[in-house]
Specification:
Distance between the termini: 141 Å
Radius of gyration: 48 Å
Structural class: alpha/beta
Oligomer: single chain
Mean pLDDT: 81
CATH topology of the largest domain: Rossmann fold
Number of domains: 5
Low-confidence stretches: 1-37, 181-243
Strand order of the largest sheet: 1-2-4-3-5-6-7
Number of helices: 27
Strand content: 5-15%
CATH architecture of the largest domain: 3-Layer(aba) Sandwich
Number of strands: 15
CATH class of the largest domain: Alpha Beta
Length: about 675
């Protein structure tokens, strides 16, 4: 039939739709606990905006969706995205089913356009098997809620519709709970009248939870080798922002691998559930593990629901047993356990009707002690790590860490005591192997940890003694080898270099570990003599930096300071002497003990010629000038000879600094005047 849906918020705004008419009469039913309002669920959902819009021109798909949900939920079909978007913006559409065949390559863009309504809109996509492979990214990123495989089966479609309605109700309730007034106002505009009563939500949620089981069916259809009757569940969501704690990095990686490979609960100790529970046992606030555990729970719920749909009561019970470990307080778990019991009862009744023996009644679900469940998980993983030899590493995922946690949960438990003893015994064995390999540090670590886990005291005492004896013998051998290396390096002249392979390096290593080692003192003496000889030659050659390196090494060596002191003084004297000879100072800065007047040349005197001569020379340690040279004169060629002869007769007091005498370069100007 053709119907016109009028937007309650705007009487002038209409959208043309084809709809399945409501079939439930508005009757009033009285229950044992309360009285229900006289309004069908379908009408209430429509009033709240929880309408399902199908964007498709595929008559078969539209008919299947209407048959699956039209009797209980408001279902409409629209032929264009514009009409769908208009309905979403007007708060008329809470669930949108997009046909991938209709939208083609533009599907992802259309989903992005609807992203602004994600707080109140549930998006479903119908696609054939080939197209569905390319949509897994949208599914894993939570851009869409579920995938429906085409051609759509009626039972699977019904489950998908129920799941979407349930999600829509959850979103609407979350929006209604927002504290800010604008959010409440927006909700009020979108949903005229009172919000959906709680009794409707409870009823709808109860009917919808089984619907999530379709995920498992679709998942296996897209995953080769796991069967053909399953639906799609998402790959694990990306981890939350930020790096995980370093000690959980390896365990998170193992858990992620297990999840992606479908190892949710098996094999023991190496499955996603055990890994994430172990992390949360150590750090309940670890964000990535908490997020991923929720995905594991969803997958297990999907398995249980799919098993219920297939009447496989044993598989459903097993899946719910694992769910209890992951989320024991879940209302969804309580509901599914009730559904399982109901299904068993129905099956028993059907069997009785057919004249078959009634299956034994299933025992009611047994309440699981969370502490006991945690302990079982820790012990399972600890045993698995023991078998793999991961006793102390990697950090966050070793047998030692899981045993420690188990001890904190129940130190006196018999199984905990047994696993702890097994770990201690294995650590003792590891210590023995490390000792045989001469890895003393590794042996000591294993011994220390074995002692912490209660290993036999006698065995540990023997190991300690063996380590001490072996280490002493190995140390003596090592010291002898170092001394031999030092002698070879000294013989080749490698006294202080290269770094890490010189005679000094090997002698210092022995000195730091065994200063009284036999032969060490003699080796040091020979080394000191060789270094002092090198330094002396370098000082004489004026190679101050190289000499300084030798003297620094000599000063740092045992008993080397006394030998280095006079050489250091010679080095400093040589450096200063070089500086004093490099620059000339005025002769007036020295003390002139005896001077001599120059002879005025006769011809210059007769002609009335005056002038001057600049000379530079070195005053030696006795105060005598040497190395005289003329640097300038005026006029040239007149007074240089007599000036040089006069200066050569000067005598100065020797130049001293800090008690040592130095040669000093000086300059002087000798003037010739007739006045």
């Amino acid at each position: 039939m053709v119907a016109k849906f009028e937007d309650p918020a705007s009487a002038s705004k209409r959208v043309r739709l084809r709809a399945v008419a409501p079939s439930e009469p508005a009757t009033k039913r009285v229950g044992s606990a309360d009285t229900l309002p006289p309004m069908p669920l379908k009408s209430l959902l429509s009033a709240g905006g929880a309408n399902l819009y199908v964007l498709s021109v595929d008559a078969e798909l539209i008919e299947t969706v209407q048959r699956a949900g039209g009797e209980q939920y408001p279902v409409f079909d629209v032929p264009s995205f514009v009409e769908l978007q208009t309905a979403v913006a007007a708060h008329q559409c809470g669930i949108a089913l997009l046909d991938a065949d209709l939208l083609g390559a533009g599907l992802a863009a259309r989903v992005s356009e609807l992203d602004e309504y994600s707080s109140r809109l549930v998006i479903l996509v119908a696609a054939d098997r080939t197209a569905a492979q390319g949509l897994m990214g949208l599914l894993s990123e939570r851009k869409i809620h579920r995938l429906l495989m085409k051609p759509a089966a009626l039972g699977i479609t019904r489950l998908l519709v129920e799941s979407a309605v349930n999600r829509c109700i959850v979103l609407r309730e979350a929006a209604a709970a927002l504290p800010d007034e604008p959010a409440r106002a927006a909700g009020a505009r979108a949903r005229p009248g009172a919000r959906i009563p709680p009794w409707v939500l409870v009823s709808a949620a109860a009917a919808l939870l089984v619907g999530v089981g379709m995920i498992a069916f679709l998942s296996d259809r897209l995953r080769p080798g796991l069967g053909d009757d399953s639906a799609v569940e998402t790959a694990p969501s990306p981890p939350v922002a930020g790096e995980p704690a370093q000690r959980f990095e390896a365990l998170l990686a193992a858990a992620d691998t297990a999840f992606r490979e479908g190892r949710l609960t098996a094999p023991p100790g190496d499955n996603a559930l055990d890994h994430y529970l172990a992390i949360l046992a150590a750090d309940p606030a670890e964000p990535t593990a908490g997020q991923q555990l929720a995905l594991v729970s969803d997958a297990l719920f999907a398995q249980a629901e799919a098993a219920l749909l297939a009447d496989n009561h044993a598989a459903a019970a097993e899946a719910l047993t694992h769910v209890r470990r992951a989320d024991p307080a879940s209302a969804r778990l309580v509901f599914l356990e009730a559904q399982l019991e109901r299904a068993r009862t129905t099956a028993a009744a059907a069997a009785a009707t057919r004249g078959q023996a009634r299956p034994p009644a299933a025992a009611p679900p047994v309440a699981v002690d969370p502490a006991r469940a945690e302990l079982a998980s820790l012990l399972t993983i600890a045993k698995a790590r023991l078998e793999r030899g991961a006793l102390l590493a990697p950090a966050g995922d070793s047998a030692a860490e899981y045993v420690d946690r188990a001890v904190r949960v129940a130190a006196g438990d018999e199984e905990v005591v047994a696993v702890r003893a097994a770990l201690a015994a294995e650590l003792v064995a590891v210590a023995g192997r490390e000792l045989a390999d001469m890895d003393f540090d590794g042996a000591l670590v294993a011994i220390r940890q074995a002692r912490r886990f209660g290993a036999d005291a006698g065995a540990l005492a023997r190991l300690d003694a063996e380590v001490a004896t072996a280490r002493s013998a190995r140390t003596t051998q090592q010291h002898s080898e170092w001394l031999a290396l030092a002698e070879r390096r000294r013989a080749t002249g490698a006294l202080i270099a290269p770094t890490g392979d010189s005679a000094q390096h090997y002698l210092a290593r022995v000195q730091s570990e065994a200063p009284d080692f036999a032969g060490l003192a003699d080796s040091w003496q020979a080394w000191r003599a060789a270094v002092a000889a090198e330094a002396t030659g370098l000082i004489a050659a004026g190679n101050w930096d190289a000499a300084d390196l030798r003297l620094t090494a000599l000063e740092q060596a045992p008993q080397g300071g006394a030998l280095a002191a006079p050489l250091r003084a010679n080095l400093e004297h040589g450096r200063l002497q070089e500086q004093y000879l490099a620059t000339a100072i005025p002769a007036s800065e020295l003390t002139l003990v005896r001077g001599a007047a120059p002879t005025y040349p006769v011809d210059a005197q007769q002609r009335g010629i005056e002038g001057w001569v600049d000379l530079e020379f070195v005053v030696d340690v006795t105060g005598r000038p040497k190395d005289l040279r003329v640097t300038a004169s005026e006029p040239q060629g007149r007074f240089e000879t007599v000036a040089s002869a006069a200066v050569a007769q000067y005598r100065f007091a020797p130049f001293e600094r800090d008690g040592r005498v130095f040669e000093r370069r000086v300059r002087v100007r000798v003037r010739f005047t007739l006045r």
